[in-house]
Design goal:
Largest sheet: 9 strands, mixed
Distance between the termini: 28 Å
Order of helices and strands: HEEHEHEHEHEHEHEEEHEHEEE
Number of strands: 14
Structural class: alpha/beta
Helix content: 25-40%
Radius of gyration: 22 Å
Shape: elongated
Protein name: Riboflavin biosynthesis protein RibD
EC number: 3.5.4.26, 1.1.1.193
Organism: Staphylococcus devriesei
Cofactor: Zn(2+)
Number of helices: 9
InterPro entries: APOBEC/CMP_deaminase_Zn-bd, CMP_dCMP_dom, Cytidine_deaminase-like, DHFR-like_dom_sf, Eubact_RibD, RibDG_C, Riboflavin_Biosynth_HTPR
Length: about 350
């Protein structure tokens, strides 16, 4: 892979989690061996990466090559098709790293008909970036990551409910960065009641995710600290029709049936493309048993706390036979000051 394509992929990775239901894309325009334009899709509804890069390059783009992390779009959405812009600027070649299987028409044919050479330069790194995006777009639900902080014996808290802090401060910083790369973080109201969290991103210039709370009954104590800042919106999903919001940054979303399918569809329609689940055993277990899970991240503290396992992070109503157990593939492991971070995907 060329350095220019690597730069385009890095640009896409830098904006991951801030493009809503649109893909993170990076683009680099090169002419005579020199970079003359750079671009990234910064937010949903904004200019696409190719347009950003070409607007920077201007006349220097003519006869050049554009490197793109994802195949350029061919449809009219909130912005015109990127293939039109590429043709307009007179580029001689387009190189992209991942085919967009969700496109309504063939970009290659459109560009080649205009006399532009097109090269598909596959990148495994870029493909991993878009794997969950394609699935989410087809299913109309967000990309979902479940995050769990636990002891070696699988407890999120002691039987008495003590949970602060199971993992170390360095893990907390890593979780802040994880929130930064997601549009929203979801939890159950039970966790809000027990832990009084804020779910913000305490890193320099970090992006605070939308905070989503599930409360079927709608019995909410608005004195909890999460409700007393306006760093990001709070959405409360409930079946309680008479629940009202105490201020404008808290949105009450009434659903007739707060089942997972309905909630996730509504969240996606509201522009959330990447959703992080940080919750207690009940909500965590619901997502681990669902068809929607894309990625599981577990932070293990080198502790065992015993007890009856009231707060075991994964719980089911019935015993699962070993041959029916959900299998995961380990993508990576990392040691964070004696705590272990494990990233997995469902097989």
């Amino acid at each position: 892979m060329s350095n220019f394509m690597q730069y385009a992929i890095q640009l896409a990775q830098m904006v991951e989690g801030q493009t809503g239901v649109n893909p993170p894309v990076g683009s680099v325009v090169v002419n005579d061996g020199r970079i003359v334009g750079l671009g990234a899709h910064l937010m949903q509804g904004d200019k696409h990466a190719e347009v950003q890069a070409l607007d920077m390059a201007q006349d220097k783009a003519k006869g050049g090559t554009i490197y793109i992390s994802l195949e350029p779009c061919t449809h009219y959405g909130s912005t015109p098709p990127c293939v039109n812009k590429i043709i307009e600027f007179g580029l001689s070649k387009v190189i992209y790293a991942v085919k967009d299987t969700t496109l309504p028409s063939e970009g290659n044919a459109i560009l080649q008909k205009a006399g532009i050479e097109v090269e598909y330069q596959h990148s495994t790194e870029a493909a991993q970036l878009y794997e969950d995006f394609f699935k989410a777009k087809n299913n109309k639900v967000p990309e979902i990551t479940v995050k769990v902080s636990t002891t070696l014996d699988g407890k999120q808290a002691t039987d008495n409910g003590q949970s602060q802090w199971i993992t170390n401060p360095e893990v907390k910083q890593d979780v802040y960065r994880l929130r930064h790369t997601h549009d929203a973080v979801l939890t159950g109201y039970g966790t809000v009641e027990a832990d009084n969290p804020r779910y913000t991103t305490c890193i320099q210039d970090g992006k605070h995710p939308t905070r989503i709370i599930l409360s079927r009954k709608g019995d909410i104590d608005f004195s909890k600290q999460i409700f007393h800042d306006n760093l990001s919106e709070i959405w409360i999903y409930t079946e309680h029709e008479s629940l009202t919001s105490p201020n404008e940054h808290i949105k009450i979303i009434h659903l007739a049936d707060c089942k997972l399918d309905n909630i996730l569809t509504d969240i996606y329609e509201r522009g959330v493309g990447k959703l992080l689940i940080e919750a207690g055993p009940r909500v965590t277990s619901a997502f681990l048993q669902s068809k929607y899970l894309d990625q599981l991240i577990i932070y293990y503290a080198p502790k065992i706390i015993g007890g009856r396992g009231i707060h075991q992070f994964y719980q089911t109503d019935h015993v699962i036979d070993l041959d029916q157990a959900t299998q995961f593939e380990i993508i990576s492991t990392e040691l964070i000051n004696q705590n272990i971070k494990m990233i997995m995907r469902k097989k």
